[in-house]
Amino acid sequence: MVYNVEPTRLIEKTADELKKLIGAPSWSAFVRTGNHKQRPPVNPDWWYVRAAAVLRTIYLLGPIGVSKLRTKYGGKKNRGVRPEKFVKGSGNIIRKILQELEKAELVKQAQKGKHKGRIITPKGMSLLFTVTKKISGSKPKTQPKPVETKKEVLPADKKAVVKKPEAPTAIVEVKKATETKVSEPQTKPKEIKEVTVKKEEKKDETKQKSKQEKNKNTKTK
User: Fold this and answer.
1) pTM, whole model, 2 decimals?
2) Mind listing the pLDDT tens digit for each residue in 30-48?
3) CB count, 10 Å around CB of 5?
4) Given this model, what pLDDT does residue 205 score?
5) CB-based contacts of 98, cutoff 8 Å, min separation 6
6) Distance CA 43, CA 26 (A)
7) CA distance 131 to 18
8) Banded pLDDT at 214 (limits 50, 70, 90)
9) Nearest to 99, CA basis, from 90, 108, 111
10) What would the CATH number be for the domain defined by 2-138?
11) DSSP at 146
12) 5, 132 in Cβ contact below 8 A?
């Protein structure tokens, strides 16, 4: 149940419920949460938020002690020119919170094998489960369906006729030029034959004329 809810929302809602069960000390308004912090928290209800976060970690990792909780809520300390160094969180704050949670019967001390520390009680588990139910109940169970866009279907008469792309004029002209070039060699041999025949006929005529002239000359002699 707890894993299905966002941790930030769960901690905020449990902090509101813990205001009815536990109290914050007077020095919580101006105290720092650790040696790595330079100022106190801005949120006036930070004590209840930290208590809710501790209750959640005990539910998830219990049994757990103060030292591990200090390491979880620690941070890097700014040491000026020197490099930063990790420092644990305030132990006094965590001890006071655990004592308040024990008074409210939300947490108790226990030992499981080698591990010793605080574990959550059935009352604390019921508190977390009721908060998770409230958070999960506020969410919409069914998500809105996406709006489907209908495609317009054209009738058979108005369907677009796809025309084949016509060949460009330049390609057609090139094709014509190639056709004429191919057809030219077919006509050339005929013309050559006709020219040769005409030349032979002229030679025969000149020969006959020369023979006739010779015969005339011989007769006159």
Assistant:
1) 0.61
2) 999 999 999 999 999 999 9
3) 19
4) 76
5) 54, 66, 107, 118
6) 15
7) 11
8) confident
9) 108
10) 1.10.10.10
11) P
12) yes
